[in-house]
Fold:
Amino acid sequence: MNSYFDEGFTYIELGDGDELWENASFEVIRKAHSDVFWKMSQFHDENRFYFIWGNHNRKWKNPKDVEKHLYQYYDEREKCNKPLFEGIKVHEGLILKHQVTGNKIFLTHGHQVDLLNDTYWWIGRFVVRNIWKYLQMLGARDPTSMVKNSKRRQQVEKDLIQWANTHEPAVIAGHTHRPEFPGKDNSCYFNTGSCVHPRFITGIEIENGEIALVKWFINVKPDGGFLFIDKEVKAGPNKIQDIL
Structure:
């Protein structure tokens, strides 16, 4: 995030950045990841931050909850409220428009095609928070998880691809935790992948009219001298006007 901030990127969080199914309190999350929220607030202060809600942080669909929890935070050291994302609006989806061709890219979390995580989200949250949270310690598999249920993940991906094929905009989604970058003969369906993978973080970059799938990971110098954060382009970059 420091790299993207210094290079002038705009950061778009594509949903589920806050795990509010297992955790009932956002404040616990903010305190645990205060450095991340501080950097995100810097993006916000420069109008370079857009926030999309997903099924696990559907709480932000409610503007009153957004105002209560995201506008400010309480600084325990200084005993006062301080701005976090003052005035922010959290969206269900956004549309990017290519300045040359006028073609569009639709951004959303992607749970909208997943019945359990959309229409019946409250059942999924109850199960995760009150049942599977504890049974997972014994090795049970969470039925709501996209990562651990390949059949449901494949169905969600199929539905998102079908949507991309039948509508004008290309689609960039998350939700499935599996990165996706279309080839020349595939539909215009992209997936950012996962920011909670134990070995790496993936994401979609759009820069200078090109789009790419990238991976951030911990690497080691060839001489074994020290570890460092490295970035690798996994697919692309492709010119946006050639694929839309």
